[in-house]
């Protein structure tokens, strides 16, 4: 069985993508908190306060880009390796799965916050 360590280039790329998602989580925090604050005190749909909350929600959704991009890039790394090499070494596969799980957890937390804000606004 192929027990070679994770390739350095793959390990570096995965670390960069996890770092991108973690930075994205930090960038998401401010807009999400602002959207939550505005949504909690928003008036009826189409009121000025509701529109402000909806605009803040849009900014929070846009702030998820770094995380979503990192998750997509991790998936693409795995798919490309499968296609080009016809398979993945066990440790490479484990590294890809671990990075995907870490970034996926960040993505899920962000998604849950967005969903909660949308519900508050009746969207």
Structural commentary:
With 123 residues, the protein is an all-alpha fold. It has a single domain (13-120), classed as Topoisomerase I, Chain A, domain 4 (Orthogonal Bundle). The termini are far apart. Helix 1 packs parallel to helix 4 (90-120). The protein is elongated, with a radius of gyration of 19 Å. The chain has helices at 8-40, 48-62, 65-85, 90-120.
Defining traits:
single chain; 123 residues; mainly alpha; Topoisomerase I, Chain A, domain 4; 4 helices; 81% helix
Task: Write the SSE topology.
Layout: H1 8-40, H2 48-62, H3 65-85, H4 90-120
Helix pairs in contact: 1-2, 1-3, 1-4, 3-4
Structural class: mainly alpha
Apparent shape? elongated
CATH class: Mainly Alpha
Main sheet record: none
What level of helicity do the residues show?
Answer: over 70%
Helix and strand run:
HHHH
Q: Give the name of the CATH architecture.
A: Orthogonal Bundle
Distance between the termini: 52 Å
Question: How many domains would you count in the coordinates?
Answer: 1
What percentage of amino acids are in beta strands?
Answer: under 5%
Mean pLDDT: 93
Number of strands: 0
| Alpha-carbon Rg, integer | 19 Å
Q: How many helical stretches?
A: 4
Uncertain stretches of 5 or more adjacent residues: none
CATH topology: Topoisomerase I, Chain A, domain 4
What can be said about this structure in brief?
This protein is mainly α and 123 residues long.
């Amino acid at each position: 069985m192929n027990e070679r360590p994770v390739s350095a280039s793959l390990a570096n790329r995965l670390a960069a993508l996890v770092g991108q998602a973690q930075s994205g989580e930090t960038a998401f925090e401010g807009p999400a908190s602002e959207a939550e604050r505005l949504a909690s005190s928003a008036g009826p749909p189409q009121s000025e306060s509701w529109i402000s909350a909806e605009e803040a929600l849009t900014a929070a959704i846009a702030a998820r880009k770094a995380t979503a991009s990192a998750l997509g890039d991790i998936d693409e790394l795995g798919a490309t390796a499968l296609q080009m090499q016809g398979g993945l070494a066990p440790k490479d596969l484990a590294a890809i799965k671990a990075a995907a799980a870490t970034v996926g957890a960040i993505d899920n937390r962000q998604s849950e916050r967005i969903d909660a804000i949308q519900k508050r606004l009746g969207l």
